[in-house]
Each structure stands twice: as C-alpha cells, then as structure tokens.
Amino acid sequence: MVTLSRDGKPVIKAEALVTYELALGPTWNRFFEGLKEEKILGNRCPRCRRVLVPARTFCPRCFVDMGEWLEVAQEGELVGWSLTEIEYFGMPTPPPFVTAFVTLDGADCKFMHLLGGIDLSGIDVVRKQIWNGMRVRIVWNEDKNGTIMDIKHFAPAG
Ligand SMILES: [Zn+2]
User: Fold this and answer.
1) Other beta carbons within 10 Å of 95
2) 6 inside domain
3) Tens-digit pLDDT profile for residues 65-117
C-alpha cells in the first residue's frame, strides 16, 4: 500500500513474514536436552564465576568461553513480572498470561518463562497473589520434546 509521508513523499507500507530455521549449536542443544530430563542446565564463567541459565557459549560480560556445566535448582525468587491481556502475533499462549523473571537458586541471572497456577482474571487479582521476592518453582509439562515449553510455567512454591 502506498501512502504519503509527513513531507508528502510516497511511502510503501507492507508486512513481511520471514520463515527461518536456527541451528541451536552444541550449547543450546545440551540445554534443551536437559529440559527433556527435567534438568535446568547452566554453566559457569571461568573468569567472573557467574552461573548463567540458560547455558551460554561465552560470557557476555567477559567474552571468554563458558566453563563448567551444572544443574541449578528448580526453585527461585520472582524478581519481576508482567501481565499480558491483549493478544499479539507470535505469543506463546493465548492471553491472559503472566511472564515472570526468576533468579533460580544457584544462578546469577534471570530466567524468563510463564507464571501459572494463579487466578489471571485481572491485574488487581494477580497483584494479590504474586510479588517480587516470592518463591516460585518450575512445573513441567508431561510431554517433552526439547523446547522451552517443556517447562509448563513457574508457580508459587509451597
Ligand atoms: Zn564472565
């Protein structure tokens, strides 16, 4: 579709859907294989000693290859969250849903996934059930195929 810009020049506006494939590589492949076995795998930077989850090929802070692999806990601290109520293209699940940022015990970075097991009927309802600093745990899907959705969601722990 041709429209005019603010200064009167013709502009073509269109959307393009680009199909692509991404080779996971050995690091992400190992991480996703771990999910099939209900393991959350990270690795430790040999320089700054941070444990990054999901595992990385190199430390983005030190620019050195990551070292030791290790399994971190399936429980951690909720450090941020967002309620999505409006549908958009490419979303992981129909709304409403909560996206959670969690520092898993044993990790030094945030891990993002859905947070479920709560009433999602509105922001005021959600605010009464979750808060930064609360403990959450991973809930696994029964069927696993080596994707991030092998994790069903986080849920309040205990
Ligand atoms: Zn580092």
Assistant:
1) 12
2) no
3) 999 999 999 999 999 999 999 998 888 789 999 999 999 999 999 999 999 99
In a domain, 8, yes or no: no
Radius of gyration of the chain (CA): 20
CA of 42 to the centre of ligand 1 (A): 13
CA of 44 to the centre of ligand 1 (A): 8
In the reported structure, the alpha carbon of residue 52 is separated from the centroid of ligand 1 by a whole-number distance in angstroms of: 9
Q: If you measure from the C-alpha of residue 154 to the centroid of ligand 1, how many angstroms do you get, rounded to a whole number? A: 27
- In the reported structure, the alpha carbon of residue 123 is separated from the centroid of ligand 1 by a whole-number distance in angstroms of 37
Range of the domain at 140: 22-156
What is the value of pTM for the model shown? Answer: 0.84
Is-contact 127 87, C-beta < 8 A?
A: no
Structural contact between residues 98 and 136, judged by C-beta atoms closer than 8 angstroms = no
